[in-house]
Amino acid sequence: MGRLGMHVSELSTKLIEKAVKEGFDEVAALVTKINSVMAKIANSEPTVIQQWVTISVNLYLTKSRRIFVVSLEPRSLEELDKPIKELIALAGKVIESPFYAPLPKVEKVEPLNMVDKSVIDYMDKMDQLVGLLLEASYRERIDSVAGMVKLSYVKRALSTSTSINAVEEKTSMTSYIRAFAGDGSGQWSFTSTKVDTKGLEYMALTAARFANESKGRIDIEPGYYDVILSPMVFGNLINYVCRMASAFSVLMGTSIFMKRSVGEEVASNILNVYDVPRDTELPNFVGFDDEGVKTYNKPVIENGVLKTLLHNTKTAYIMKSTTTGNAGWIAPHPWNIHVSPGDSSFNEMVSEVKKGLIITNNWYTRLQNYVEGEFSTIARDAIFLIENGRITRSVNRVRIADKLLNILKNIDLIGKDLYNIHWWEVGIPTRSPYILVRNIRITKHVI
To answer: Which residues contact 8 (CB under 8 A, 6 or more apart)?
Structure first.
């Protein structure tokens, strides 16, 4: 088939021609080329600066209502010949897919391009960004920091046998810093589609300040506490909620919305959560989904009410709805998440808590029951005890063990300031405020 160094749109078009020639009825090819540079920090030193290029190829193939999806990172075009030939040979031996629906015919595809020159320029100046993070962190009296900053330039091409040919280009920056001071630690994240040095500076200062303020930790008794969740923590939990708003999750029985309907109250009436694929300040912005359908911003939860299940053409066909521009060839998914701000300052939220906690970071969130939303997650780094409207002590690690719907329904106050978060535990870029949730079940963290 030729060389791999061709433009992504040329490669996606050739793959369509190849698969149709082999005998497939419908074909879609999504080719993504990502140029990335990442600087890692350990023990307050830049340990490595990595630069790499990845080309990923995702193929959607149908034959007589049978569906095949292939994901590869090929080194040559010849590596793509073999799976196409093998799958057409299998086409008559597998059952028809209950999720089959024809690829949509889209009259006009509208790419959403946003390439920021600062990201391209700083790919050769990563040492400057590392220096900025270290300098900002050490304005506080800390012992050490760790973390990373990553810049990416992405080209994404989609071609289909229904005559879609579209290309998008974009840039992004993702970073996090974890700071240490004695037995205290703090972490923060920041993401953008440009190099925002003020955002990086705020992230480093926040992590370092949390590290200092969380020294001298004490144990607390398990029980029910009012909890102020940081954007890091609420971002993690709302990622799970929005993934469960995928119609595929509902159909598969892995969603808290399985027993609930669009239009039903599922959260506090002050909560508004949106899927915002057209927000060009968050890295997963996209103008068209994997089926070539134009994306649009939409409410998932509005005034506490479930407003939208996320669809591709397949789930829409099964559930007698319409696609929401969130394909996934098999499972629709959210792109970016925006949580609307409230009208409370952070200090006002603290003053409204008689017995409670501030949890700034978490990890290892696990679902024990998807339909009921039973989960647990480890609160780590800076945790603070609130007594009678005042922050009094720092606290050792605890675990949140509750239900997602309880969290959503018990939201009492929402902060007025928004923060862009994206890291390991917040895989979908999320813009979120601080959130005060009443009566959360807190248990001991057992190592």
So the answer is: 31, 32, 33, 55, 155, 156, 157, 167
